[in-house]
Amino acid sequence: MRPTPSAWLLTGAVVTEVVGTLALRVSDGFTRWLPTAVTLVGYGVSLWLFSLLLDRGGVALGTAYATLTGVGLAAATLASVLLFRDPLTAVQLLGMGVLAAGVLVLQTGGPAERT
User: Quick check: keyword Oxidoreductase in the entry (predicted)?
Assistant: First the structure.
């Protein structure tokens, strides 16, 4: 099964948002120009890709946004553990599991009927 264009747009939005967030971590309060530029470009591209996704109309806003933030949060958390040696507790892992379950339910719940 091939990924749809919407899946590629959402994946791109998540990846660029996470890159921007990781760069924000090392920008030292926007005092370092390169990480600051990567942060701004990452967030800008993420929003642009997300807007294209919404414009295509194939994904509901709530589902798309929950996926963007949930997957982005989990990816940024795992990357910060690997790159910056940030701690990760069992409770935080449980929270990430709950997030993943929520995103899965939103993705597989099917379209809501309009009344």
Answer: no
What is the tens place of the pLDDT at every residue in 6-64?
A: 889 999 999 999 999 999 999 999 999 999 999 999 999 999 999 999 998 778 888 89
Q: Is residue 20 part of a domain?
A: yes
Phi, psi (degrees; rounded to nearest 5) at 70: -65, -50
Is residue 96 within 8 Å of residue 77, measured between CB atoms? yes
- How many structural domains is the chain composed of? 1
**Residue 77 counted as domain residue:** yes
Q: Count CB-CB contacts under 10 A for residue 49.
A: 21
Question: Please, what's the b/e burial string for 24-43 (b: 16 or more CB within 10 A of its CB; e: otherwise)?
Answer: beebeeeeeeebbebbeebb
